[in-house]
Amino acid sequence: MKALVYDGVETLGFRDVPDPSPQAGDALIKIEAVGICGSDMHAYLGHDARRPAPLILGHEAAGIIIGGPEEGMRVTINPLVNCGTCPACMAGRENLCPTRQIISMQPREGAFAQMISMPEANLVTVPDHVPMTKAALAEPLAVSWHAARLATEALHPAMDKRALILGGGAIGLAAALALRAMGITKTTIVEPNITRRAFLTSIGEQTAAEALGEWPVVIDAVGYAATRATASAHAQPGGVIAHIGLGEDTGGIDVRRLTLQEITFIGTYTYTAQDFRDTAAAIFDGRLGDLNWTEQRPLCDGAAAFADLRAGTVAAPKIILDPWSG
């Protein structure tokens, strides 16, 4: 099969690789759509030790089962593989499983390929009316759904239903969509890139070039010291910060202000299996909108797509790659 392989810093190769070999309990899936995630970009830039070259990246995928009793079934893929038996898994907190694995990290190759093998338990059936380009959004949307759920659960009921989102990429936009689906009536996305900000405005999102005022909920979908400092400064006393982004490890949090103003800081990672299923259901029934904010390209042009993202010239929050076109 063909795959897009991370070969080193800012180096991707599109070439033949061995077909995957499904293990017991796995399904072989023909990938129809796979999105480029910010974590893929971190690896591409050499900033993620968990993703050493050579490696097939990509974990936001949907496709069709090949072979077996479920052949032809359309599925979206939960890329987080867990043991299923530890206390975290038994409590429905699979994202905290101590032996969790995710495709696109060693030892599991990713979905920037024409096929992948996945445990059947990680697959969610996609209705016929849902395009694969939208089904592939289940993973990034689930990340934001999980963060939005934790933030709204932590928010004091007396506080206003408003949220500030830092970062206008797919995770930030998805956070706005999820928060509104959960009853947050006003959201503003802070996005300094004028091209992307214009795109977000064109699809009806409230945007700003910089953060102003204080907000009951702040979502950091970027995760750099500068955005954590912004979150610390603009969270309302008694409010909630949900931190998703993994831009850099340290700096930015104003611990004194968080303490004196009793601001809740929540680190959020991926999603539970239930969050993933709930997100998929919200995609299928339209609660997260039309989701027409992606750009589609062939997987064979994946290296150029990464270069364009690196250059900041992509307006759409998400690029979806097709392994079979081009």
Distance between the amino and carboxyl termini: 15 Å
Radius of gyration: 19 Å
Tally of individual helices: 10
CATH H level, superfamily name of the largest domain:
Medium-chain alcohol dehydrogenases, catalytic domain
From N to C, what is the helix and strand string?
A: EEEHEEEEHEEEHHEHEHEEHEHEHEHE
Structural class: alpha/beta
- The CATH topology name of the largest domain reads Quinone Oxidoreductase, Chain A, domain 1
Describe the structure in your own words.
α4 (138-154) crosses α9. The chain has two domains: 2-137 and 291-322, Quinone Oxidoreductase, Chain A, domain 1 (Alpha-Beta Complex); 141-267, NAD(P)-binding Rossmann-like Domain (Rossmann fold, 3-Layer(aba) Sandwich). It has helices spanning 38-44, 87-90, 132-135, 138-154, 170-181, 194-202, 225-234, 255-260, 273-284, 302-311; strands at residues 2-8, 11-16, 26-35, 55-56, 60-66, 74-77, 80-81, 101-102, 115-119, 123-125, 162-166, 186-190, 207-208, 215-220, 235-243, 264-267, 294-298, 318-322. The protein is globular. With 326 residues, it is of the alpha/beta class.
What's this model, at a glance?
The protein has 326 residues and is an alpha/beta fold.
Topology at a glance:
Blueprint: E1 2-8, E2 11-16, E3 26-35, H1 38-44, E4 55-56, E5 60-66, E6 74-77, E7 80-81, H2 87-90, E8 101-102, E9 115-119, E10 123-125, H3 132-135, H4 138-154, E11 162-166, H5 170-181, E12 186-190, H6 194-202, E13 207-208, E14 215-220, H7 225-234, E15 235-243, H8 255-260, E16 264-267, H9 273-284, E17 294-298, H10 302-311, E18 318-322
Parallel strand pairs: 11-12, 11-14, 12-13, 14-15, 15-16, 17-18
Antiparallel strand pairs: 1-2, 1-4, 3-5, 3-9, 3-18, 5-6, 6-10, 7-8
Helix pairs in contact: 4-5, 4-9
